[in-house]
Structures are given as structure tokens and as C-alpha cells.
Amino acid sequence: MTICGYSACSADSHPKIKKISNFVLKTNGGKGVVRELLEDVLSLDFIEILYKK
Predict the structure, then answer these.
(1) How many Å from the N-terminal Cα to the C-terminal Cα in the chain?
(2) Which of 10, 11, 24, 52 is 20–30 Å from 36 (CA)?
């Protein structure tokens, strides 16, 4: 997760996973996490994010 550049986890993830994730989603696993993640990803400007790092 720390290598990929964009990591996200569900709201009910283990605290260690939350700590290393770039984004902690609002939904719990199995309750629409993929939809929330895709909506967030589609709204981001990845070129800007990559060059800010």
C-alpha cells in the first residue's frame, strides 16, 4: 500500500491499515466501498497529485 502512490481503505479497516492509507473512506467494507472509491478516483486530477509528491 505504501508503494502504489494512491491507497484507500474502508472505514472499518484495521487501525494499522488506516494509518498507512492515503484515504480512509466513509463506508464500511461490503457497503459500497468500491462505488465510493470509484467516485473519488474519477473526481481527482491524478496528474496534479503525482507531480505534487
Answers:
(1) 16
(2) 52
Q: How many domains does the chain have?
A: 1
Q: What is the DSSP letter of 40?
A: H
Torsions phi, psi of 24, nearest 5?
-105, 115
Is 21 part of a structural domain of the chain?
Answer: yes
For residue 6, the Cα-to-chain-centroid distance in whole angstroms is 6
Measured CA to CA, the distance from residue 32 to residue 39 in angstroms comes to 11
Prediction pTM value: 0.69
- Residue 43 covered by a domain: yes
* Amino acid letter, residue 40: D
- Residue indicated by cell numbers 508503494: 3
Q: Does 2 fall in a domain?
A: no
pLDDT tens readout for residues 22-47: 889 999 999 999 999 888 877 766 65
